[in-house]
Automatic annotation (TrEMBL):
One of its GO terms (biological process) is fatty acid metabolic process. It is an enzyme of class 3 (hydrolase). GO terms for molecular function: hydrolase activity. It comes from the Eukaryota. It holds the Pfam family 4HBT. It catalyses: (9Z)-octadecenoyl-CoA + H2O = (9Z)-octadecenoate + CoA + H(+); tetradecanoyl-CoA + H2O = tetradecanoate + CoA + H(+); dodecanoyl-CoA + H2O = dodecanoate + CoA + H(+); hexadecanoyl-CoA + H2O = hexadecanoate + CoA + H(+). Residues 172-244 form the Thioesterase domain. Its EC number is 3.1.2.2. The lineage of its organism: Eukaryota, Metazoa, Chordata, Craniata, Vertebrata. It is a peripheral membrane protein. Its main location: membrane. Gene3D superfamilies: Hotdog Thioesterase (3.10.129.10). This is Acyl-coenzyme A thioesterase THEM4.
Length: 264
């Protein structure tokens, strides 16, 4: 019991204090530790905080499956768009010197926590069967096939999304809830990139034209403004050539302390 408690505390510390591999959480500690009336950071984890500063949090070398990489289910159009955005991404060159590129592909796992150093034990103890909603269909191509790219200079985001046959709503077309899901995921990821840990407070969606099942669409996400804890994002889902507007949305994301996720 005590051993499990210590393991959990250590895993939690690493989770809360270090960076995601996608580099989203430079500011995580400031979000994590609320300041009380006396001006001191409050945290039940305060006493073990020093330990966490020793431990970097790269993903483990056990080669977790990155769901945003191409697979056999991808259509030629999906692959073409993946190649197009990948060609504009930063790349590691020889001597690990980075060639500058404005875009960055974000990896995507079905349970990020499981693949973080120190997170394996924690992932067993916290809702062990939990999986990311968009990444829990095993059959390739049946559900959400998508890859997210961030433009670090323009602070925009693009997702290439191929909707599989299990996402049907109206016959032959994508379910509105599935469209909302991909929009929430992309804009939520975008807001996290901008502001650190957030939760969706409001998502307003206008469905303009149906999305055929199996087609490839682009989800464009743009930062409107940041006001204190509030990050406002707008989003458009278009055909892959950009000619047809399928869906428009706006989202409000509120910054949270990670303790919010634990009921604090
Ligand atoms: C690596 C990454 C991979 C990530 C890959 C995965 C990405 C998936 C992303 C999925 C994201 C989700 O679906 S998240 C799940 C769905 N969302 C939720 O379950 C959230 C449930 N709601 C909440 O927990 C809470 O209401 C919060 C956290 C949103 C806000 O609560 P709070 O922290 O107490 O803040 P509160 O004081 O109420 O509000 C702060 C400010 O926001 C405003 N505000 C709050 N809610 C609203 C609202 N609905 N509409 C307008 N304004 C609002 C308030 O007026 C206030 O403005 P002012 O007075 O300061 O001006």
């Amino acid at each position: 019991m005590l051993r499990h408690g210590l393991q959990m505390a250590r895993g939690l510390c690493q989770l809360l204090s270090d960076k995601f591999s996608v580099g989203l959480h430079r500011n995580i500690m400031k979000h994590l530790l609320p300041i009380n009336a006396t001006g001191h950071a409050w945290s039940p984890l305060r006493n073990i905080r020093a330990v966490t500063q020793m431990a970097p949090w790269p993903f483990s070398s056990s080669q977790p499956r990155d769901y945003s990489l191409p697979n056999a289910s991808w259509s030629a159009e999906m692959q073409r768009l993946y190649d197009q955005y990948s060609s504009m991404c930063e790349v590691e060159t020889e001597g690990s010197e980075k060639k500058k590129g404005a875009w960055r592909r974000l990896p995507s796992y079905n349970r990020t926590l499981k693949y973080a150093t120190g997170g394996r034990c924690l992932s067993r103890m916290l809702q062990a069967k939990a999986r990311l909603f968009t990444r829990n269909i095993e059959e390739q191509g049946a559900g959400f096939e998508y890859v997210v790219f961030i433009n670090k200079e323009e602070k925009t985001c693009v997702c290439v999304f191929q909707a599989g046959h299990l996402l049907e709503g109206p016959p032959g077309h994508v379910h509105g809830g599935a469209i909302a899901t991909i929009i929430d995921s992309v804009t939520g990821t975008h807001a996290t990139y901008i502001s650190g840990p957030v939760m969706t407070a409001n998502l307003t969606i206008n469905y303009r034209s149906p999305i055929p099942l199996g087609s490839v669409v682009l989800v464009h996400s743009a930062l409107d403004k940041v006001e204190g804890r509030k990050t406002f994002i707008s989003c458009q889902v278009t055909s892959s050539d950009g000619a047809k507007l399928h869906t428009e949305a706006t989202g409000l994301f509120v910054s949270i302390n990670v303790s919010h996720l634990f009921g604090a």
